[in-house]
Fold Lrp/AsnC family transcriptional regulator, regulator for asnA, asnC and gidA.
Amino acid sequence: MAKFKLDEIDHQILDMLIENTRVPFTDIAKKLLISAGTVHVRVKKMEDAGIIKGSSLTLDYKKLGYSFIAYVGVFLQNTSKTAFVLERIAEIPYVTVAHVTTGKFNIFCKIRARNTEHAKDVIFMLDDIESVYRTETMISLEESINDKKRLMHSIFNDL
């Protein structure tokens, strides 16, 4: 497939959708002085090109009682067990992100928990997975930066 070329209108549409995925196309159209049909067509083209993949919802985990964040590095006995271990990790709902990595850890996970006691239970679940040699945990004191827009603007400037 040919590379999809984004223009400034596409950038502005994406900027508004990143801010709020539920913003009506009519609102985007009014702000950009274009028709809602144009917004719809452009979003559809970006979806078809794979630039936009679904939409997401941002939850306030603190209000839901899951404000505790920890990062867990997982050491494996053998890297050939990576797929097996990832399948077991995927069964733990409190592991929200897992990366296969190079360097110190074989797998690096982000967990969300209610408190330190709950986090300990989740970490023990990771430790108990067959082929996990050991884990190393870092507790997040605060999520200071979580900004998709800055990266998007850098990418647009590079294009």
